[in-house]
Design goal:
CATH architecture: 2-Layer Sandwich
CATH class: Alpha Beta
Number of domains: 1
Order of helices and strands: HHEEHEEHEEHHEHHEEEHHEH
Number of helices: 11
Shape: globular
CATH topology: BirA Bifunctional Protein, domain 2
Structural class: alpha+beta
Length: 309
């Protein structure tokens, strides 16, 4: 798994990709610092949850069982209660199919929480961060982007926004067999992205187990206050987030509706009792962002040591 060839290390293309990756993180940290965020570090070993994505990644101990983290939430909430605006750049782990070109078993994420922030304000933060990273790369990584034959100087705000309902209608008009309530799969994202020259947002996804900790739309209870940022040119989702529930009773109600067992989430429910400010949070997939910026065909190209099944 760890064998690499000398020609990889000497390749101009590989060097360019790795330097762009470094500059992405540099630009992200610069944006967070300018906007008053505190960088934090959250646990990688977390309590085992009975979910499919965690069963493969279980760590056994004589006293307790743990999983490798799928993300920094809900630990970010505890840090937010203490520090206000927070962000982290962290590894995360996810089980996907063997032939996926968009997923790594071990990947990296930028995650943040913003107190007293609604969905629209959070969408603006995602857009501002993405634009800042692109401008930073255009200044600091221009030669590397030339090696990769990529030009991101034309990425400008504002990004267009469509609703989940509109996305389903567009796909149906394009002849895709998809219905309201279905998940918008990577292939659907690719089709949608052909209509846009820049990244665009899809917002108000249906309520389901994946949106458990996000608020429901105040006027359409079947929808959640969530969003995905979709890259242009068929690269799919690069960021996602939403307006978080701050009332534990609301989460318990949603868990009953979705038939989700509460014992696995008791710690999060207890945490909600002491975290009162309304807040929003989002995550950016570093490898996916890098794929889009560098025009890569396979996510394995984003690191020297890709971890896949």
């Amino acid at each position: 798994m760890d064998r690499i060839h000398i020609r990889q290390l000497r390749s101009r293309r590989v060097k360019a990709i790795l330097r762009v990756r470094s500059r992405i993180l540099e630009g992200a940290r610069e944006w967070f610092k300018r906007n008053g965020y505190t960088e934090i570090q959250t646990p990688i070993l977390v309590p085992k949850i009975d979910e499919a994505g965690h069963k493969f990644l279980t760590v056994h101990h004589p006293i307790w069982e743990a999983s490798l983290s799928a993300g920094a939430y809900p630990y970010t909430e505890a840090y937010m209660a203490c520090l206000g605006r927070v962000f982290t750049i962290t590894p995360a782990f996810r089980v996907e199919g063997k032939n996926s070109k968009r997923h790594l078993l071990e990947h990296w994420r930028i995650e943040c929480l913003i107190p007293r922030c609604n969905l629209e304000e959070m969408i603006q933060a995602i857009e501002d961060l993405t634009i800042h990273i692109c401008h930073h790369l255009d200044e600091e990584a221009r030669e590397d982007l030339k090696v990769l034959e990529r030009d991101i100087s034309n990425i400008k705000a504002p990004f267009q926004k469509i609703t989940y309902d509109e996305a389903i209608e567009i796909l149906q008009l394009d002849g895709v067999e998809i219905f309201w309530g279905d998940i918008i799969e990577p292939e659907h994202e690719r089709i949608l992205s052909k209509r846009f020259n820049e990244p665009f947002f899809i917002k108000y996804f249906p309520v389901n187990p994946e949106t458990l900790f996000f608020k429901s739309h105040p006027k359409k209870r079947g929808l959640s206050l969530t969003t995905d940022l979709i890259a242009s040119q068929g690269y799919g989702e690069i960021a996602s987030g939403g307006e978080m529930i701050d009332n534990p009773k609301e989460i318990i109600r949603k868990m009953k509706e979705e038939d989700i067992q509460g014992k696995d989430y008791q710690w999060q429910l207890n945490l909600k009792k002491i975290i009162h400010p309304p807040h929003s949070g989002f995550a950016v997939g570093i490898e996916r962002l890098l794929m889009w910026i560098c025009g890569l065909k396979d996510i394995k190209e984003t690191t020297l040591f890709p971890r896949k099944l």
